[in-house]
Amino acid sequence: MISVSNLRILILDDEQLVRDELSEFLIDPNFQIFKASTPSEAFEIMNRNEVHIAIVDVNLPEMSGLEVLEKIKKEHSEIEVIMISGYSEMDSVIHSMRLGASDFFTKPFRLRDVEHSIERTKKFVNLNKSLQEVKRNYSIISKEFYEAMGYEIVGESRHMKNLINLIGKVAKTENTSVLITGESGTGKELVARAIHYLSSRKENCFYAVNCSAIPETLFESEFFGHTKGAFTGASDTKTGWFEAANKGTLFLDEIGDMQLNLQTKFLRVLEDRKIRKVGSNIEIPFDTRIIAATNQNLEELSNEKGFRLDLYHRISSFVIHLEPLRNRKEDIPLLLDYFVKYFNRIMAKNINEVDEAVVRKLLAYEFPGNVRELKNMVERAVIICDTNKLGLSNFQLNDIKENYSDHYHYPSEEILDLELVEKNCILKALERSNYNKSKAADLLNITWQSLDRRIKKYKIEK
User: pTM of whole model > 0.85?
Assistant: First the structure.
């Protein structure tokens, strides 16, 4: 016999012999069997008890088995249904499958076949329970996050539900370092804040630092602090970021742009969990969770000697990857609706409708700037809109594809090779800046060091 913990099976058949034969065959300490001779009795059992699998006869009093199946799927969608019938009618088989039955048997059937069907159906039961758990977690965490921060992580795609689940799990840990990867504009800082505000550290400071904006001369002073008179201009004692975020969370954005010699200092502090202010010999312990983010592949960068491998392993105990918006387009209408309501509220507007042509146009767009770009689009559209309906004229969408194609220097056929797209983009920026690396880096919205590494990687020469 198969053995499944606490599997609850309902047998609905107006023939007592069938009910008794099936229930006797399925006797098992891990099974709980319910029997019913009429649909009304069966639904009363389902309303009072958790049922996982229902075995339902097609020909029943009160209503047909197909009507029972349809009602179960409407009122108890988590229950898997196996249909049985005294007639081998193909129409009944097809109809029952369309209504959601997991299997169909014709009487007289072999009990072993029913047993095997229950074994197969059990997998659907377990999968359904897992999906329901993910949905519950998604709902609970979204609600908690909204209450803590006043806004939400929006999305119904499989990726977003999995993301919420991961955030909830890692938030429960005290000190686990988290590395968030993904393209610019995907919401890496939002995820970092979610982890912080759903953790036991939420009452303490969340401190965000952009690593690409820290000059080498100020690194130690900014991260570790300094004492009064430690150097020219140090007129007061300064608290560093590690100390400021003590008992809280330190978020390190664009950590891949941190210079190598600074990475060495940073790694030593993470290993010792102590800092020393510039100008002081006193070591100060700190208790801070580190969350880092990058739009680069740090493993690949470490192979090119652009990032320390030991630092990568130190900060990546738990990795969360954010998919670009173009890979989860089913979330675009939800995000559009959310941002319209958001800007409605803060701008005191009354926009309650969006033209379907706008949605179609947005779904056709690749969004190189991801969610941030969509948010900016909606903000501008809401500002311009003078009616209660957003239309194409509010969005500047007519030339979207042309601009996107030009920016990435595509030929007539679309290119999906990511490295080739990146190389073409760099070449375009260098051409526009007359090969001035600083200006090209500004156009690409990356640091000079990041651009230099990519130029070497792709062997780009003037």
Answer: no
- Picking from 189, 365, 219, the residue whose alpha carbon sits closest to that of residue 292 is 189
Please indicate, yes or no, whether residues 119 and 225 belong to a single structural domain of this protein. Answer: no
**Structure tokens that stand for 442 in this block:** 């500004």
Could you count the other beta carbons within 10 Å of the beta carbon of residue 270?
Answer: 16
54 occurs within a structural domain:
yes
One domain, residues 111 and 72: yes
Q: Do 27 and 77 sit in the same domain of this protein?
A: yes
The total number of residues written for the chain in this structure:
462
Domain range holding 420?
410-457
What torsion do the CA atoms of 450, 452, 453, 458 make, to the nearest 10 degrees? Answer: 120
Strands (E) in 89-163, as ranges, are: 103-106
Return the C-alpha torsion angle 209, 210, 216, 220, nearest 10: 10
Segment 15-67, tens digit of pLDDT? 898 888 888 887 776 678 899 999 999 999 999 888 888 999 988 999 999 99
Query: Distance between terminal CA atoms of the chain?
Result: 74
- How is residue 210 written in tokens? 């952009």
Long-range Cβ contacts of 68-77 (<8 Å, 24+ apart):
68/12, 68/39, 68/42, 69/96, 69/99, 69/100, 69/101, 70/99, 71/39, 71/43, 72/46, 73/99, 73/100, 75/43, 75/46, 76/46, 76/51
Task: Choose one of 285, 300, 321: the last residue of a domain.
Answer: 321
